[in-house]
C-alpha cells in the first residue's frame, strides 16, 4: 500500500463542479522539462482547438523566468498565463495536461481528469527505468497500481498523441476516474506517513532533476 502524504490534508476534491471547457497546461517547474514539454502541449492545444472551438487554454508557470520564452511558444494559440496559482486553476478545469511528478498527485486530489506527459534525456530515462519498480510513472497510477490516467512518455509525448488522449477524456463523463481520485484522497488522508511519502517523492524528484 502506498503511504499517505500531507497534500491530502491540504487539498480536497472540488465540489459543485460545472463544466467550463477550460484546459490547463502544466509543463513543470524546471527549465529543461518546460522546454521539452510545452511545445508538445501547444501543438496538442492547437489540434484540440481545431476540434472544439469553445475550448479555452490556461498555462500555469511555476515562476516568471520562462514567461517570455513561453509567450513565443504559444503564438497562434489564444492562451491565458498565470504564475503560482496552480490549485485554483486546476479546480476550474475540465482537463489538465500535466508533467509527471508531484503535480499529478495535486490534480488527482482536487479530482480533475488529466493527461500525464514526460520527456527525459536518453541517459536519464535509462537510469529512471531501472530505478523505478512500478510500471507507471504518474503518482495516481503508482498509488492505485493500475492505469487510471493516460501516460505519454518519451517519444509518445507528442502533440498528436496528447490531443487524441485529451479529446477522448473531454468527450467522456470521466466519473470512474474521478471516483478513483476520491478514493486516493481518502486513502492518503487517513494513511499519512510524512517521512516515507517524502522519501518516495524525493526519489522521483531526483530522477527528474537529472533530466
TrEMBL record:
<keyword id="KW-0441">Lipid A biosynthesis</keyword>
<dbReference type="GO" id="GO:0016020">
    <property type="term" value="C:membrane"/>
</dbReference>
<keyword id="KW-0443">Lipid metabolism</keyword>
<keyword id="KW-0444">Lipid biosynthesis</keyword>
<protein>
    <recommendedName>
        <fullName>lipid-A-disaccharide synthase</fullName>
        <ecNumber>2.4.1.182</ecNumber>
    </recommendedName>
</protein>
<keyword id="KW-0328">Glycosyltransferase</keyword>
<dbReference type="Pfam" id="PF02684">
    <property type="entry name" value="LpxB"/>
</dbReference>
<dbReference type="InterPro" id="IPR003835">
    <property type="entry name" value="Glyco_trans_19"/>
</dbReference>
<dbReference type="GO" id="GO:0005543">
    <property type="term" value="F:phospholipid binding"/>
</dbReference>
<keyword id="KW-0808">Transferase</keyword>
<dbReference type="GO" id="GO:0008915">
    <property type="term" value="F:lipid-A-disaccharide synthase activity"/>
</dbReference>
<dbReference type="GO" id="GO:0009245">
    <property type="term" value="P:lipid A biosynthetic process"/>
</dbReference>
Amino acid at each position: 500500500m502506498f503511504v499517505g502524504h500531507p497534500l491530502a490534508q491540504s487539498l480536497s476534491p472540488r465540489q459543485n463542479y460545472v463544466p467550463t471547457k477550460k484546459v490547463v497546461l502544466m509543463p513543470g517547474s524546471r527549465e529543461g522539462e518546460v522546454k521539452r514539454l510545452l511545445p508538445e502541449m501547444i501543438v496538442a492545444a492547437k489540434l484540440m482547438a481545431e476540434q472544439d472551438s469553445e475550448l479555452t487554454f490556461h498555462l500555469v508557470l511555476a515562476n516568471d523566468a520562462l514567461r517570455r520564452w513561453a509567450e513565443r511558444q504559444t503564438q497562434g494559440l489564444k492562451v491565458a498565463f498565470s504564475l503560482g496559482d496552480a490549485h485554483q486553476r486546476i479546480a476550474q478545469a475540465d482537463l489538465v495536461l500535466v508533467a509527471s511528478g508531484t503535480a499529478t498527485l495535486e490534480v488527482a486530489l482536487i479530482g480533475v481528469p488529466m493527461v500525464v506527459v514526460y520527456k527525459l534525456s536518453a541517459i536519464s530515462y535509462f537510469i529512471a527505468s531501472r530505478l523505478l519498480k512500478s510500471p507507471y510513472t504518474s503518482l495516481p497510477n503508482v498509488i492505485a497500481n493500475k492505469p487510471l490516467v493516460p501516460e505519454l512518455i518519451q517519444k509518445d509525448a507528442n502533440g498528436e498523441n496528447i490531443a487524441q488522449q485529451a479529446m477522448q477524456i473531454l468527450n467522456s463523463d470521466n466519473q470512474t476516474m474521478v471516483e478513483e481520485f476520491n478514493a486516493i484522497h481518502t486513502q492518503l488522508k487517513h494513511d499519512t506517513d510524512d517521512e516515507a511519502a517524502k522519501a518516495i517523492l524525493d526519489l522521483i524528484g531526483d530522477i527528474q532533476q537529472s533530466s
